[in-house]
Amino acid sequence: MFFASDNAGPAHPKVMEALIDANNGYALGYGADPIMDEVRAQIRDLFEAPKAAVYLVINGTSANSILLGTMAQPWETIFCADVSHIAEDECNAPEFYSQAKLTLVPTEHAKMAPDALHAKITAEETRGVHGPQRGPVSLTQVTERGTLYSLDEIEELTEVARDFGLKTHLDGARFANALVALDCTPAEMSWKAGIDTVSFGGTKNGALGVEACVIFDPDLAWEFELRRKRGGHLLSKHRYLSAQMQAYLTDGLWLDMARSANARCDQLAEGLRGHNSVELLFEPQANMIYFQMPRSEHQRMLDSGAVYYVTSGDPASGDPDEMLTGRLVTDWAMTPQGVTQFLDLLRG
Amino acid sequence: MFFASDNAGPAHPKVMEALIDANNGYALGYGADPIMDEVRAQIRDLFEAPKAAVYLVINGTSANSILLGTMAQPWETIFCADVSHIAEDECNAPEFYSQAKLTLVPTEHAKMAPDALHAKITAEETRGVHGPQRGPVSLTQVTERGTLYSLDEIEELTEVARDFGLKTHLDGARFANALVALDCTPAEMSWKAGIDTVSFGGTKNGALGVEACVIFDPDLAWEFELRRKRGGHLLSKHRYLSAQMQAYLTDGLWLDMARSANARCDQLAEGLRGHNSVELLFEPQANMIYFQMPRSEHQRMLDSGAVYYVTSGDPASGDPDEMLTGRLVTDWAMTPQGVTQFLDLLRG
Amino acid sequence: MFFASDNAGPAHPKVMEALIDANNGYALGYGADPIMDEVRAQIRDLFEAPKAAVYLVINGTSANSILLGTMAQPWETIFCADVSHIAEDECNAPEFYSQAKLTLVPTEHAKMAPDALHAKITAEETRGVHGPQRGPVSLTQVTERGTLYSLDEIEELTEVARDFGLKTHLDGARFANALVALDCTPAEMSWKAGIDTVSFGGTKNGALGVEACVIFDPDLAWEFELRRKRGGHLLSKHRYLSAQMQAYLTDGLWLDMARSANARCDQLAEGLRGHNSVELLFEPQANMIYFQMPRSEHQRMLDSGAVYYVTSGDPASGDPDEMLTGRLVTDWAMTPQGVTQFLDLLRG
Amino acid sequence: MFFASDNAGPAHPKVMEALIDANNGYALGYGADPIMDEVRAQIRDLFEAPKAAVYLVINGTSANSILLGTMAQPWETIFCADVSHIAEDECNAPEFYSQAKLTLVPTEHAKMAPDALHAKITAEETRGVHGPQRGPVSLTQVTERGTLYSLDEIEELTEVARDFGLKTHLDGARFANALVALDCTPAEMSWKAGIDTVSFGGTKNGALGVEACVIFDPDLAWEFELRRKRGGHLLSKHRYLSAQMQAYLTDGLWLDMARSANARCDQLAEGLRGHNSVELLFEPQANMIYFQMPRSEHQRMLDSGAVYYVTSGDPASGDPDEMLTGRLVTDWAMTPQGVTQFLDLLRG
Q1: Helix H or strand E segment including C122
Q2: What are the backbone dihedrals phi and psi of residue D82, each rounded to the nearest 5 degrees, phi first?
Q3: Which residues from D are below 8 Å from C248, CB to CB?
Q4: Is the peptide bond before A142 cis (omega within 30 degrees of 0)?
Q5: Per residue in D46-80, pLDDT tens?
Q6: Choosing a second label site near B287 at 20 to 30 A (CA), which of B116, B336, C42, C155?
Q7: Per residue in A54-90, pLDDT tens?
């Protein structure tokens, strides 16, 4: 009953095996390992992007920050959802790497609407050299509240950006969960929908810690490499990153894991919907649920061994009937039985 | 015959086993895993520093940069050896994290002499607000040319720093190799010799990728944590860092590996000394050798499958008799037979 | 009829005379000129703050940015009004100098309410190392829409900040206009109301280009000096800054000029209120008016030689009846006749 | 007898008059004043560079730093003389604006030799993404020790840079003094000799505080403008910068002032050469002299009212016979009688 985060579960055994296989003899470091050549080919193939630049880093914060640093200038502002990870959860890392600022676009269901994005971009318009200049647009898919942009919605947003000559970034820490939910291809959810760069997550979906940075315009590749090194994010024993990503992508393991995580989320949502005192705050479309429940119920669940975050108040003190928000995240390693156990416990 | 770098060899099997053991069930992320509690205790114990702040990061560049960022102000200059890794091999990462600049102290045998350090610090003296202000001093042990500071030499340097009220950092990417060569304790090679913070390397000595940052003054801990996060260097699935370091330190594995690497280096140096056309440039005191040899000999070795860097010219073109510099690095996984094979080949 | 900005008019003749008087013989540079000693004493006296650190810079952007850089850490967020100059008009300079980010607090009448500030500060609360940390609060007086915080309102805001242990900055580019409007003392509008640092404007009120940075806690003085120099804002021939400020403050010239500018604004507002097609958007309390008027009327005024900004659309094209926003700013050099001329023209 | 610096003297009366003339009525700010149009034309004309981008800032530190920020990338290193102002006297401002680092090239007579520059550029060669990348080359003319590069020497250095594809910057804080000494044209001392950007000083030669940034490639113009604004260096009442530069350039005033300053320096050097206990350290070629003299003599001069810097020790305490270094700088406002007075005093 550990629903605190999809970074709390174990890595998939096949990923571990790949790591052990890679731990054999001597190999050049810093991305010159032969496994990385295979990974690059795998990702270009998956994304139907034979010229894409592909790099690996250890986590989502560095993937987002180095990509945005490569895309934005210090005098620009990056447009993103008001609840985005880059705005709320990265301790100014995107600003550190890009020296740019962020303009927060208001959201519904954690999603920017094209009109809202257009309005914010337009508002940065009339000040010449005085105001921040318009920079790239960053979308998050799966969103921070577990909802999804449809392919059409992504395209509408990237069209707004393109109308202003702006580049677009996709924070895909949960790329796989979104992909299987939308039942589309990586190309459809990225460059075919107008996306220029992708943080392609592995960590939250069964890896130990690896994300790919996919840059469809290879002209940005060298700058990315220098920014990665300057940020301390180029690994010497790079093969251990490569091996993780290789196993992750082989034989559709990444998709299987995402499907499993999403299925557990569906099961959980179904169970929650049947519960009187629970209200779902957003339609769970991938592997994350935000819900409300009385404080006393949260406290009872936590006391019984369920692990998850209550995000809007202290479950341990206050009016027992007050509705508090909780977040449940599922991952590949969860079993139907585990979810059932949680739901049974909830029913009391 | 892979002597290119000590980051080219495999991780130790015990480190891999620890990783697999750690990959079990759910654990809180971001350093709150229980293994990290053990690692912290291990390192405090090793360093006889019960209050030290201890953090793990993925590599030496980030360890050095985040530590120096925590120690230096943007208007200061960091004093370091002219051949130091932070000056030459980190693509401005220390400057990125600290916003400070570096003042290069001339070296002999890759080591700063107290007088030279004193002279450079003094030279930044008389300009008030106009010049860079004096910042921390960073030492590298093992140095970038394979030599060592004796404990007395470290103490003399830190005394110079302390006379000016400056803090000191030890870049210990090869801390273990130095320690076994000097046959001293971690405390003796750090705080007892006046060092304030240590980049304590694991990556080059049998780990996949982990370094500890040891900060003897815990008042700097929170700032370090914020700088680590802001740099994208706080791992969500942190237990995989913890597990590496735990295995590394358990039962003296780290010392055994360093002894083995150093022994291979001794064997190699002994063999090279007996060779007519070879000249050692520095006294190899740990696991790295810089030597000179005619271009034609380098080329013959490389053609025969030896892998190492020729650092002062192209071995493939030019006067065959010109002496070129080569670098050989040994690691824990090398066998006496491997070294013998190299030396036999060299003898022709 | 030049109402575009209070930086468009001339400097006061007494300021020019002081400049000429200062241009005599040789003087030490970089703030060591004897006039600066007098200015420091003048400002400490005015603010009843005998220990305050006092520095001069050339403009409001540098005053705000260097002060905020001195007050905020790179991992923090600075709380400010959503329409503040530091957010909208300084091309990321505050972020450049502080490396921090800005959190925009929603406003009414361009003013933050204590509740709104409290809510934003609280919202940055629960993420530990992951989110931006709480940094200083910056207020603007006169606000960017020509309204004023009462002394009580300032105090309520600084109390909110103080409850969270946060420092406060006052962007006083129009400090004088606010002071005479509120009929209070500089101390009352600053440290007595809980303000820690002040950007004390001169440029918009009759100087050529000078602002004082007033820091009530002298412990921050040396860091400010280093940040000023590092930003390129320490003038060698500093006496020309000192002389401006000296004349500005002597015999209440600064207050006389502010009173005159405010009186012209009152006259203008009075006239606008009597005009059918004009609507004032905010209560003009100092020397700036935001108003709405049909596009055709704006265009007629601009064609007739009035100079001011239409901020919400192109006056030259579109529905002639659409209401567009205009901004009128008065300064010390305007005559009652000039205002009457504008109002007569408006009446048609 | 004030020889401390050429920023210690007064501005020329014609510059002051221009300031007063400019202080008339209303003008658009931020460089849109009509005087700036004239200044731009003047400078393009002077430099025979009809497309050059021309901007004004308040001092040399900001001119150098914003230009280098526009030319260098954060992962690069800027090559400059080891005694250059950007390295020693700007408190890390060039690093702040560029995020790059500096590589110090050893000098003779304060000048980089082409070989020395070539060697330093070459040394940054072989590390791929690991080392700093090669960035622009910055020359100082007049050098920091009062010597001059000949036109041929400048051209040789820029050729070295060009061979590596690197851009070049000229720190011309004393551009005028160099120009009249070399008796050449601004074009010859800049783009015709391979220079890409110039910090064109006015402050040290009779202005209150103004430098022009001249960028021969107008493609860099917009980035410069954004960097200037973001650094807080775009003046609102810009006409007061424009007016200074306009008067400075009109009727060759700037050249007359430089000739006068240089003539006083020649007179001073001639007198010093005739003095037994004085040794000139460099050949004074413009308006600055470094010389050695016994401590007791320095102290006697300072006691008698001479004002200048003793740069190598405390004149007030120590061996009276020890030779200490002094620096004498002349400016436009000095009279032959003033110099004679100093020399008479020296003769005792």
Answers
A1: helix C114-123
A2: -65, -20
A3: none
A4: yes
A5: 999 999 999 999 999 999 999 999 999 999 999 99
A6: B116
A7: 999 999 999 999 999 999 999 999 999 999 999 999 9
Give ipTM to 2 decimals: 0.97
Q: Which of A30, A129, A226 sits opposite D75 (nearest CB)?
A: A226
Residue C346, both tokens: 């408006």
| Cβ A44 vs Cβ A216: under 8 Å | no
Residues C206-228 have pLDDT tens digits of 999 999 999 999 999 999 999 99
pLDDT, residue C126, reads 66
Q: What is the pLDDT of residue A127?
A: 82
Tens-place pLDDT, residues C60-77: 999 999 999 999 999 999
Q: For the segment D147-167, what is each residue's pLDDT rounded down to a tens digit? A: 999 999 999 999 999 999 999
D228 to chain A, closest Cα gap in Å: 9
Mean pLDDT of chain A: 97
B165 is in which domain, residue-wise?
13-253
Report whether C35 contacts C239 (CB < 8 A): yes
What average pLDDT does range B221-246 have in this prediction? 98
C234 chain-B contacts, CB cut-off 8 A: 129
Residue B6 lies in a domain: no
Whether residues C231 and D231 touch (CB distance < 8 A) is answered with yes
Which amino acid does the sequence have at B60? G
Do D263 and D333 fall into the same domain? Answer: yes
C250 alpha carbon, distance to own chain's centre? 20
**Is B2 inside a domain boundary?**
no
Kindly determine whether residue C74 and residue B133, on different chains, have CB atoms separated by under 8 Å.
no
Q: Decide if D129 and B92 are in contact by the 8 Å CB cutoff.
A: no
Q: Rounded CA gap, A64 and A93, in Å?
A: 9
B/C interface, count of CB pairs below 8 Å: 31
Contact present, C100 and C75 (Cβ < 8 Å): yes
Round the average pLDDT of chain D to a whole number and report it.
97
Task: Judge: B234–C129 Cβ closer than 8 Å, yes or no.
Answer: yes
CB contacts, 8 Å: B101 with chain D: 92, 95, 101-102
Are both B206 and B330 inside the same structural domain? no
CATH number at residue D140: 3.40.640.10
Contact check, Cβ <8 Å, D101/B89: no
B273 and B132 share one domain: no
Tell me whether strands B288-294 and D107-108 are parallel, antiparallel or unpaired. Answer: unpaired
Q: Which among C129, C225, C234 is the nearest to B226, CB-wise?
A: C129
Interchain pair A230, B91: CB under 8 A: yes
Shared domain check, C306 and C243: no
Asked whether residue C239 is domain-assigned, the answer is yes
pLDDT digits over B281-332, tens only?
999 999 999 999 999 999 999 999 999 999 988 999 999 999 999 999 999 9
Do C159 and C269 lie in one domain? The reply is no
pLDDT at D1: 83
pLDDT exceeds 90 at position D255:
yes
Beta strand pairing call for B211-215 and B197-201? antiparallel
CATH number where B283 lies: 3.90.1150.10
Q: Are residues A71 and A33 in the same domain?
A: yes
> Has residue C5 been placed in a domain?
no
Q: Which residues of D touch A225 (CB under 8 A)?
A: 129
Domain boundary pick from D253, D274, D289: D253
Quote the pLDDT of residue B126.
Answer: 66
Same domain for C281 and C174, yes or no, is no
pLDDT of D91 over the 80 cut = yes
Looking at the DSSP bridge assignments, the partners of residue C76 are C133
User: Which of D6, D12, D15, D23 has the most C C-beta neighbours within 10 Å, making it the best mutation to test the interface with C?
Assistant: D23
Q: What is the mean pLDDT of chain C?
A: 97
**Cβ within 8 Å of residue D46, ≥6 positions away:** D186, D249
Point out the domain boundary residue: A253, A282, A317.
Answer: A253
Mean pLDDT on A257-268: 98
Count up the domains in chain C and report the number: 2
What is the CB-side half-sphere exposure of residue D195 using CA atoms within 13 A? 32
Q: Assess whether B86 and B200 both reside in one domain.
A: yes
